[in-house]
Amino acid sequence: MPELKDISLAVNQTHIGTVKTMTDFGCYVDIGYAEDVLIPSGYMQANISNKMAIVVFVFHDDDTNRVLATNQLFKFFDETNNEYFAPKQTVNCMVWSSTELGYKVLLDNEKLGLLFHSEALAKHAIGAQFAVTIKQIREDDKIDVTQHVQSASQRKDLAAQILDDLVAHDGISSLTDKSSPEDIAFKFSVSKGAYKKAIGALFKAKKITITKDFIKLID
């Protein structure tokens, strides 16, 4: 078993961890280093529980001279755009919190944004990472993102991806128009609706056959 790294090497970075111990002054989180890192109560989002997956930012606290963490990412990352991103730009994101409206996401490890449930392809776990598109910069300068396919060219790219995947798997795939949105999003990072349109177009072009159990490449 490799020796775990010193926790000081984790400073000024985001990490996906697991809550190990709850206390009356915060909680300790395992982020894969030699020691668990403390989230003090004042730096902790509500509804944290033991064994919960969590995204934290690790920092050095000058007042206590300790390495600490927080899952309140807004304490260290800007929630306003300040002309950093532009609409239709593709960026990487990490889910750090879930709300009734949608998912709070960290964008390119720089800014915070919101992925509404209606703009998500599937249910996402805390710590999930995937590509999104900047949907809009709101009047309050906050950032909304989407996972949905945005253009005809992107739909053509999806069809090409499906064909490439079929070629790589002996011309057959169990991912059909009956598959779950989660399975489709995991494989191609698109909505079920976009996937159904793409395989429908391939079927009309006589490039694939479709059954309830599989799709197959036509030789």
UniProtKB/TrEMBL annotation:
Position of the signal peptide: none
PANTHER family in the cross-refs: CONSERVED VIRULENCE FACTOR B
Domain called Conserved virulence factor B first S1: residue spans: 14-70
Protein's name according to its UniProt entry: S1-like domain-containing RNA-binding protein
Domain Conserved virulence factor B-like winged helix: 161-217
Organism phylogeny: Bacteria, Pseudomonadati, Pseudomonadota, Gammaproteobacteria, Alteromonadales
InterPro entries: CvfB_fam, CvfB_S1_st, CvfB_WH, NA-bd_OB-fold, WH-like_DNA-bd_sf
Source taxon at top rank: Bacteria
Organism expressing this protein natively: Opacimonas viscosa
